[in-house]
Inverse folding.
């Protein structure tokens, strides 16, 4: 009952249980953080807008993204994954979400940013429905913790419209 | 030499009833582990409620050796979600992020394109020949939580199976020779 083996076993079990408990509490504490992120996206230019040989519309944009995601960082945050998606509806599809740009924000200091980019991923439709299409630009963020539950949310910005003709 | 002599003595001294009791206890431990695993599958709705991250394609968020908790609900798949999917013909599931989602208006079926955060290109090259999109039946779950480093045990046991055998052998020996 007092051998080294029993003592080591008891110590190890206790240590693992306490560690699991601490991880759970750390994750739970994320629920109490006050989060007030803000963002603005501006379309600076439609670079080109074509119907591709395979029949699908494709558009290339230059975007200006300003965001302040600093309030999302807690002590249990490892990184925040942010991405901008264009969301629109077509006659065939109830919802289309196309990610245009994403970034990994490893620290709070980098979470307040202003960036001007052309779309990192190709904005291709399933079909040729994009002429004159109204769409939303949504900034999504995924908070990846050091341990525990991940959570995600988004800001939807509406009022963007693609041109009526190809260029 | 004393330890080996003691082990041999204790093996000789085992009576049948005691041996059966110990075998049943071992069986109970194994089956209760199985019950917990199956219950987790029911609760989370996913075929594999816990997966180990095997590649570096989601760094720096998920490192090799982390474990992910999965959940599969009836809610539609949306862009940005980290999904675990298996491709026809590949055994090992892949954990990547959905970057494009097209959901049909009438049938609610969904086309999904995924990409690992740390990869330069999207996952088209990983899908089956001629497949351009993932569908709901390919997706086994969404990652909802994670624990770092715990998965290294599984990785070590898979890559060096000899350690698995040593561990099971040692555990078996311990059960047989323990007096209670």
């Amino acid at each position: 009952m007092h051998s080294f083996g029993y003592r080591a076993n008891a110590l190890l079990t206790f240590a693992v249980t306490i560690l699991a408990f601490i991880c759970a509490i750390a994750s739970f504490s994320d629920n109490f953080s006050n989060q007030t992120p803000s963002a603005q996206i501006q379309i600076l230019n439609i670079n080109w807008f074509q119907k591709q040989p395979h029949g699908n519309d494709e558009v290339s944009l230059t975007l200006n993204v300003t965001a302040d995601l600093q309030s999302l960082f807690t002590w249990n945050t490892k990184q925040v994954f942010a991405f901008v998606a264009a969301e629109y509806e077509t006659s065939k599809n109830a919802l289309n979400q196309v990610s245009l740009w994403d970034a990994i924000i490893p620290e709070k200091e980098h979470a307040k940013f202003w960036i001007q980019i052309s779309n990192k991923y190709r904005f291709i439709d399933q079909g040729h429905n994009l002429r004159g299409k109204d769409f939303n630009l949504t900034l999504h963020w995924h908070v990846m913790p050091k341990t525990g539950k991940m959570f995600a949310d988004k800001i939807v910005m509406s009022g963007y419209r693609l041109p009526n003709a190809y260029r | 030499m004393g330890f080996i002599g003691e082990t041999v003595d204790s093996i000789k001294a085992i009576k049948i009833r005691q041996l059966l009791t110990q075998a049943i206890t071992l069986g109970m431990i194994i089956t209760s582990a199985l019950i917990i695993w199956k219950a987790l599958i029911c609760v989370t709705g996913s075929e594999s409620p816990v997966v180990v991250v095997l590649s570096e394609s989601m760094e720096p968020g998920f490192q090799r050796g982390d474990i992910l908790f999965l959940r599969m609900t009836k809610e539609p798949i949306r862009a940005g979600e980290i999904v675990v999917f298996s491709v026809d013909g590949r055994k090992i599931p892949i954990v990547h992020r959905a970057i494009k989602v097209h959901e049909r208006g009438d049938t609610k079926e969904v086309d999904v394109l995924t990409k690992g955060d740390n990869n330069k290109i999207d996952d088209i090259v990983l899908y089956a020949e001629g497949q351009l999109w993932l569908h709901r039946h390919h997706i086994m779950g969404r990652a909802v939580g994670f624990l770092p480093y715990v998965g290294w045990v599984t990785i070590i046991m898979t890559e060096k199976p000899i350690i698995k055998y040593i561990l099971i052998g040692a555990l078996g020996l311990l059960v047989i020779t323990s007096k209670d």
